[in-house]
Amino acid sequence: MTVGTPFHPRTAPLNEKLQWREWSGYFAASAYHDSHVIEYNAIREAAALIDVSPLFKYELRGPDALRLVDRLITRDATRLEPGRVFYAPWCDEHGKVIDDGTIHRLDDDAGGQVVRWTAADPQYRWLRLNAHGLDVDVADVSERDAAIALQGPLAREVLRAASGEDLSDLRPFRRRASNVGGIPVDVSRTGYTGDLGYELWIPADRAVEAWDALVAAGEPYRVRPAGMLALDVARLEAGLVLIEVDYTSAVHSHIPAQSFSPFEIGLGRFVDLGAGDFVGKRALVAEVAAGGPPRRLVGLDVSWPAIEALYAAEGLAPSAPPTVSRVPVPLFADGRPVGRVTSTGWSPLLKKMLALASVGVAHARSGGRVEVEWTVEARRHRVPATVVDLPFFDPSRRHA
């Protein structure tokens, strides 16, 4: 049965059009307002509150908590000091990505090291299996802890007003304990929008109080709730991959072509082959030694004039899809299939049609020309596109 998140008593009355979707067994707002673009504008121009409580959350506690992290993620977990956050994928023994998420080193306590692990898919069994022989306790705290993303150029001001603290020195991928309206929270400089932003980890039984405090503090800064449709546009502009859309988890793949290594989905920079003997390392070393994988994730700048011309030929006004399409479509070069587009959408900020695509390495070079399948009036056409470097949008405030 689908249930509301800890914030549901506040988010439900705000969802004017009752646009809900299911996310890991929870109700998640697709959009709150007449148009999700209103919420997207809050992310890019002011501040937005995004309920991300349905993320799976695990707490690793004990003397060997970091050793377990080091066994699994593709980065060197020995560098994960208290106060730091790692974004990383983790793989199966074949070097194919199971999931990706954030790993937060919390402050040590009397029981030893403490780590918060977030994921899109359930990982409890995988964590427990790989904890064999280690002195570490793995707890699923998904229901204990609520989570909200405060994102946008004014997010820092909202957080300062809500907490009474100046967190301007909290660098990207750092975290610290703080408060919201006197409620203890953990604040991480993370998010899924490619913008300035924070994620707040809150005791579920005090989530409504925290929401009220954030809304009251954010009123002078035009804070708004934002749903999944707006978030999808923002993450596409940021060139961030989405599991089961831009890649398939190795757990769910049925054929080899559905499994992806980190190097195939733009996460190669998060692979440290000099790190410990993590799961999948041997396969990734072999992949690199063989010259790398045969496909890559790329960004595409899809020709809008070409799309306009297709609609004009049918006597129609051009149409830009308001939401991100997650339907894969073929990608061509020299008349032959060379890959597939995984996410496609119009960027209100960049005024461009953008796409993420998995493409053969021969056509993955920036500046290369390819063709995207585009359907108008039930007829399939091809429009030109240019391979570009990711991310599409990377504001300096994100790193400040």
How would you describe this structure to a colleague?
With 400 residues, the protein is α+β, with helices and mostly antiparallel strands. The chain folds into 3 domains: 8-52 and 143-226, Gyrase A, domain 2; 56-140, Aminomethyltransferase beta-barrel domains (Alpha-Beta Plaits), CATH 3.30.70; 294-400, Elongation Factor Tu (Ef-tu), domain 3. 20% of the residues lie in helices and 33% in strands.
Helix and strand arrangement:
Layout: H1 8-14, E1 19-23, E2 26-31, H2 36-45, E3 47-51, E4 56-62, H3 65-72, E5 85-91, E6 97-105, E7 113-119, H4 124-130, E8 137-140, E9 145-151, H5 155-163, E10 175-180, E11 183-188, E12 197-203, H6 207-218, E13 223-225, H7 228-237, H8 281-289, E14 295-302, H9 304-313, E15 329-333, E16 336-347, E17 352-360, E18 369-376, E19 379-388
Parallel strand pairs: 3-13
Antiparallel strand pairs: 1-2, 3-9, 4-7, 4-8, 5-6, 6-7, 9-12, 10-11, 11-12, 14-17, 14-19, 15-16, 15-18, 16-17, 18-19
Helix pairs in contact: 2-7, 5-6
Second-tier CATH architecture of the largest domain:
2-Layer Sandwich
Strand order of the largest sheet: 10-11-12-9-3-13
Oligomer: single chain
* Continuous helix count: 9
Overall 3D shape: globular
Radius of gyration: 21 Å
Q: What number is the mean pLDDT?
A: 97
* Main sheet summary: 6 strands, mixed
Distance linking N and C termini? 42 Å
Class computed from helices, strands and strand pairing: alpha+beta
**Could you please say which CATH topology of the largest domain applies here?**
Gyrase A, domain 2
The CATH homologous superfamily of the largest domain corresponds to Probable tRNA modification gtpase trme, domain 1
Please give the CATH class of the largest domain. Alpha Beta
